[in-house]
């Protein structure tokens, strides 16, 4: 692949949304590197996806210490591509990473202690060949570490300049409220919360979104396509190159079950009536809520990315469409 030079039109079409009450704006679509960027994946394809994303105004790339497989390899590959292709563009990028799930053996390679978070971020920076990340997340709450220690470590990391902003992920409403309060007291406001949220996973609607709005914290839903279920790809079986078919994919075959597929087929019908693909409609449906700063998608192909990009300009739904969608999502089959 020849040398990459970003498109001059990269800021012409993307919508940028303010992240809570902060000064930071994020693209309506952000790209995550959980799957498809490890050593098991095609490096040329990784490069192609990153180039296309940046060309289309996607400035935010989301990683974590353990993304791969093997764990760490997504950060390494990303770091390699950054150096090769994005040299000189660091100030146009928002790069996030996280620690909170198991990364190495022993008592210091998991959860939310100061020891783990500091060591892990140092390792992530080395793998990505970066001096700092833009956002560092506590990847999940740790029931055995005082929240003050985990949040105090995020505050320290920001003060050390190893991250510009602090975020939390997978914190339930009450835990998030406490974490946000501690960070506020320490003087490092919580920038953003990264929860799982899609048409098929709606727990955030039961309180979390209200807290984030009240506290001026942004929200970036992960797996907004339910790992690919909310697309038309599984309507006629499990394609060979899909996440559900891959041995290292986190989407299990039994999640592609007749009850879910029946709902997906009905949602697909509504999407077609709207003149959208189901993937586009699933993202538009999230982005219709102004509390959503950005949706954090994954893609295995440039064509999927291109498809998803047609979502943020179509966020108006009629009441009739919304109630039909609601009926499908709430139906028991
Ligand atoms: N904080 C956390 O705990 C946490 C957890 C999970 C994820 N995340 C973050 O969220 C990011 C996104 O998660 P995700 O990959 O599960 O997101 P997703 O967008 O729900 O699913 C991505 C998958 O959907 C399929 N897809 C995407 N666009 C498509 C299209 N237009 N048409 C057909 N299929 C399409 C692809 O599947 P195929 O691969 O089958 O082609 C792709 O790999 C991750 O990379 C990570 O950064 C965070």
Brief summary of the model shown:
This protein is α/β, with parallel strands linked by helices and 333 residues long.
Secondary structure blueprint with pairings:
Layout: E1 16-18, E2 25-27, E3 29-32, H1 43-55, E4 60-62, H2 73-85, E5 94-99, H3 114-128, E6 133-138, H4 147-159, E7 163-169, H5 173-186, E8 190-194, H6 208-215, E9 218-219, H7 258-274, H8 278-287, E10 295-297, H9 302-308, H10 319-330
Parallel strand pairs: 3-4, 3-10, 4-5, 5-6, 6-7, 7-8, 8-9
Antiparallel strand pairs: 1-2
Helix pairs in contact: 1-2, 4-5, 5-6, 7-10
This protein binds NADP nicotinamide-adenine-dinucleotide phosphate.
What does this structure look like?
Helix content is 37%, strand content 13%. With 333 residues, it is of the alpha/beta class. It has a single domain (16-232, 276-314), classed as TIM Barrel (Alpha-Beta Barrel). It has an 8-stranded parallel sheet. It has a two-stranded antiparallel ribbon with strand order 1-2. The chain is globular and about 50 Å long. The model has no long low-confidence stretch (mean pLDDT 97). Bound molecules: NADP nicotinamide-adenine-dinucleotide phosphate.
What tags apply to this protein structure?
333 residues, alpha/beta, TIM Barrel, eight-stranded parallel sheet, two-stranded antiparallel ribbon, 37% helix, globular, binds NADP nicotinamide-adenine-dinucleotide phosphate
């Amino acid at each position: 692949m020849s040398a990459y030079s970003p498109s001059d039109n990269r800021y012409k079409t993307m919508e940028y949304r303010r992240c809570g009450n902060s000064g930071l704006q994020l693209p309506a679509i952000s790209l995550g590197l959980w799957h498809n960027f490890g050593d098991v994946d095609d490096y040329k394809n990784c490069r192609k996806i990153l180039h296309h994303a940046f060309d289309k105004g996607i400035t935010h790339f989301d990683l974590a210490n353990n993304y791969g497989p093997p764990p760490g390899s997504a950060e390494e590959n990303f770091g390699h591509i950054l150096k090769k292709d994005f040299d000189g563009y660091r100030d146009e990028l928002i790069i996030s990473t996280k620690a909170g799930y198991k990364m190495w053996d022993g008592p210091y390679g998991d959860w939310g202690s100061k020891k783990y978070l500091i060591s892990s971020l140092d390792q992530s920076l080395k793998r990505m060949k970066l001096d700092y990340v833009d956002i560092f997340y506590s990847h999940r709450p740790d029931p055995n570490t005082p929240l003050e220690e985990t949040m105090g470590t995020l505050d320290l990391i920001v003060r050390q300049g190893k991250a510009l902003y602090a975020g939390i992920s997978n914190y339930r409403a009450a835990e998030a409220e406490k974490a946000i309060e501690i960070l506020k007291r320490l003087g490092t406001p919580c920038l953003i919360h990264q929860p799982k949220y899609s048409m098929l996973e709606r727990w955030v609607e039961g309180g979390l979104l209200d807290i984030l709005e009240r506290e001026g914290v942004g929200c970036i839903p992960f797996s907004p396509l339910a790992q690919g279920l909310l697309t038309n790809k599984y309507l006629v079986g499990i394609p060979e190159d899909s996440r559900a078919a891959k041995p290292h994919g986190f989407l299990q075959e039994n999640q592609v079950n007749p009850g879910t597929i029946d709902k997906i087929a009905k949602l697909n019908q509504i999407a077609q009536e709207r003149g959208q693909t189901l993937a586009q409609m699933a993202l538009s449906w999230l982005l219709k809520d102004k509390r959503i700063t950005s949706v954090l998608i994954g893609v295995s192909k440039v064509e999927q990315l291109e498809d998803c990009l047609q979502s943020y300009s179509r966020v108006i739904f009629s009441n009739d469409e919304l109630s039909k969608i609601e009926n499908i999502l709430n139906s028991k089959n």
